[in-house]
Amino acid sequence: MGLFDRVSRVVRSNLNAAVSAAEDPEKILDQAIIDMQEDLVQMRQAVASAIASQKRVQQQHDRSQAEANTWQQRAQLALQKGDESLAREALVRKKAQAETATTLKAQLEQQNTTVDTLKKNLIALESKISEAKTKKDMLKARASAAKANEQLQNTMGRMGTSSAMGAFDRMEEKILQLEARSQAAAELAGADLESQFAALEAGNDVDDELAAMKAQVLGGAAPDQAALPASEAPTAAPQDEAVDAELEALKSQLDQL
User: Fold this and answer.
1) Is the CB of residue 91 less than 8 Å from the CB of residue 75?
2) pLDDT at position 16
3) How many domains does the chain have?
4) Model confidence over 199-225: pLDDT tens digits?
5) Residue 90 lies in a domain
6) Model confidence, pTM
7) Which has the closest alpha carbon to 183: 172, 175, 195?
8) Is residue 111 part of a domain?
9) Which domain holds residue 53?
10) Rounded-to-10 torsion of CA 182, 187, 192, 197
11) CB neighbours of 88 closer than 8 A, spacing ≥ 6?
């Protein structure tokens, strides 16, 4: 492969890539419909021209055929009048017109075929344009939806990496920390309150146990002694007095030391 061919291929590939990148589906579809409408106008003009030509050939054929018939009648009239040379001249003219009519008839048949073909192509093109318009609307709707989705995705992508979203993430983390600290403080306050109530409950247990013990001690005393009046309480025994005296002596000795 020569250098020129390689360069030409590179240039064409770059141009094709640039054109493909610049193509807007909606604009391309609209332009395609415009092109098809222009083709339809040209097709209608061609059909109209073919029909006009068909009518013109038909008129020429009819006129030539009528001329041939006229010269046929004139030839008969000349023979009836006994003018054979005039009849011959009329037959010559009749033959020429008949040949022209035959030629025009063949041309007319060909023209009829052409007109029929053009009419069928015109109908087919109109049908294709109608289908293309329907498909264009559908494709444009899909293109619009795709563009909107692409724009949304790009926006979401920018939001995910933007500083604003980063600030939201940081603030959320701080709020989570504040909530955790608040919850911990609440738990600590609750624990302190629980300990205070536990102490109170423990004190009540001790008091209850002490009261029960007092009741048990008092309940074990002699009934007769508990029932005696205060004036009739028994006096201390002499032995108890001696013990008390000795105890007092010991206290005095300790004080002198």
Assistant:
1) yes
2) 55
3) 1
4) 666 656 666 777 777 788 776 554 444
5) yes
6) 0.47
7) 175
8) yes
9) 23-135
10) 130
11) 75
